[in-house]
Task: structure prediction
Amino acid sequence: MHLNHLHLQGFRNLQAQKIEFLSGLNFFYGTNGAGKTSLLEAVHVLASGKSFRNGQLRHCVQQGHAGFLLQAGWTGTDGKSNKAGVQWEKGQWQRRFNAVTQEHHLRIARQLPCIALHPRTQQLIAGGPEGRRKLFNWLMFHVEPDFMPIWKRFSTAKSHRNVLLRQQRKGWELDEWTRQYLQVAEQLHAVQKRVFQSFAGHLQNLLKQHPHLASVDIQFYPGWSKQEGLQACLQRSLARDLEQGHTQCGPHRMDLRLRIDNQDAREWLSRGQQKLMAYELVLAAIRDLSDELDQWPVLLLDDLQAELDEGNLQYLLQPIQQSGAQVLANGLEPGLLKHLWSDVALFHVKQGLIQRQDKR
Result:
């Protein structure tokens, strides 16, 4: 897959312009605050409807503008050309994919897989389970056709059950929605387990290549105690669910737990190793997607050279370079990236204006 161009208007500090990309490494350099990260963020917002920097899209709107407009064209693995355009203004989306209006972002996201590695990626290890669940859901969305229909049914059943819990309505209604919740939760759990087996295999293969991470083991936590099962967990936690007004047991609480000698790996790994481990989680998800769909997503690398030493950076980047994936990266200067890729397009970013330099 190859992102051909991006047109943007009203997005952060970037000037209205059109940028054309190469299929290999596209590197954006310039001083801090020039707009390098904003360019990567714009691609991510177009592809997913979300920012990797801030959950509130209003912060992406340039001062003096009511909203932003993003348009892109790309070539899929089937060789077909695709176009998408999105406009966000005062909390409202307008979306078009190949000239057809889209109510949701799902079609664009599925056709333009995109993922970012950035300074906050390390929270996949240092932070709570929410980030790991988001990464895993991203993978399931792309590789499992059954995921979204099951997820929607699960969310509906959980929502109805939570309403009854908040209203303290014990009785047949709660029993019925608990039954429906349990049924679809088991279906979702089966999808999660299936994807986890493949994902864990890719992760272990990556970790074996790094002596400091080879002892890390990844374990799947389903969202309830394996010893008692989901139905027993729901029965045991009913009083607490009623007290708190939401369902605590289920696949929405799943986690990817990292262990060394059956202890939390964070107690053993240095800060630098935690960063590398977080990036390896993302790379394992990407490799799983590549195996299933025979394509790599567009990779956005936000100032990785400031996050990793040269040895770990080269270790991380070599498989990316060898994959032939399209990469959009930024930093103060190309450094090691320029030496790893033979096909490099350099872009200078200054005061929100992005200008192509001579191809290396």
The chain has a mean pLDDT of 93. The longest strand covers residues 67-75.
